[in-house]
Amino acid sequence: MAVEPTPIRRPRADRARQVADVLRQQIHAGAFDRTLPSEQHLAAEFAASRNTVRDALALLKDEGLIDRAPKVGTHVAQRKVDHGLDALTGLKETLKGYGEVRNEVRSAGPVTPPPAVARRLELAPGEEAIFVERLRYLGDLPLSLDLTYLAPDIGNEIITRDLEHNDIFTLIEEISGGPLGSADLAMEAITADAHSAATLLVPDGAALLLLERLTRLDDNRPVDLEYIRMRGDRVTMRSSLIRDTTSWELT
Amino acid sequence: MAVEPTPIRRPRADRARQVADVLRQQIHAGAFDRTLPSEQHLAAEFAASRNTVRDALALLKDEGLIDRAPKVGTHVAQRKVDHGLDALTGLKETLKGYGEVRNEVRSAGPVTPPPAVARRLELAPGEEAIFVERLRYLGDLPLSLDLTYLAPDIGNEIITRDLEHNDIFTLIEEISGGPLGSADLAMEAITADAHSAATLLVPDGAALLLLERLTRLDDNRPVDLEYIRMRGDRVTMRSSLIRDTTSWELT
Question: What are the residue ranges spanned by the domains of chain B?
Fold first, then answer.
């Protein structure tokens, strides 16, 4: 920074983090196309030392956002895809334009759900649910690993359909004959255990977004409980809020 | 599972992940108070082998959610706090009832923001912004590290106030004399670099939720751009969506 924010000099690691956060956002926004400006250029733009810029770039490299090589320079390794938090759309619908979404169905069939799942889906004790596990690809790389429990009436029909090429949300709306009603979402950051990492083709310990989502039909009946592990290096969740006098509305 | 979801037997790691996801949700919901049921009890509940349950508990231990010790059993290490995604409330307001929020102000003062930040805050080239860096505690432990760029008129006033005990959102509303208007949010999962980890008191490489948020006043002027690193083991972001004929509304 041209003007140090406090009289005391801040540690370089603090300044590097500050630079990295702004660069990260610029990369997501497509500001650099494919090649990042030189260290020298970035140092001028951020009014930072070259060492600070180098540390900032090292942070982004560790996150898998950029590649760096001597003489070749700094390149965007991959742009993340944006996933809206503010509408109940499936992945395929959300990522229209980003590339082909394909689902590898790793498991699909009836299970006796644990009581905690049965309660959330409002099933009678011992009633079967349908469990579906999918590894979801965007292009050639895995994007997410989705574990889904479905109410039996809808789930039994869903597993007869083409799960490889369709979102479960789309199939639910087709089968129930109406739009989805509401959903509760919980999002966490976790590190990938060895097996999840191997499945998602990321390094052991890589950051994942874990989304848990309970979705209800228009009549308020819960039908779909999902646990979704998204590759942290490939997905950004986005939403917008507008204050509308009394409440908040998503745009 | 009592009924295997597919004719082929699934690898134990897949079944352990499935059990861990449901247990994680139960821990968040406070289902166990402090002590988890025995492996034997959980094996019966999940219709899983004890080895599968043991692997599931190992996953949750690695995430820092539970402690395990021979003879002592399995305990909830810490319950996560819920942070609403669906309203523009500051941390202190959000966490009322969870404990005391205290902010350690690590930096506060004017900076010449990088062009990418100036553009988002709609500042003239070269115009100063106010930068504030806070390490935010809930009780004795850090919860998040927040880097904030403020429009100068509001920011200059904010840094004269008690930043240790107030949310910036509250101060903005006090100073601007009106409610906040809207915000754009982007959420990612990243691993903690060594320095961020040391600051947040988590192991190197721990999972963090990174929230980037641009907040506008009622008249649509952007005044507050934040980069917030939240400890993945302490925070769950939650929201609810309701379909309201034509649009989605947060509850």
Answer: 12-76, 81-250
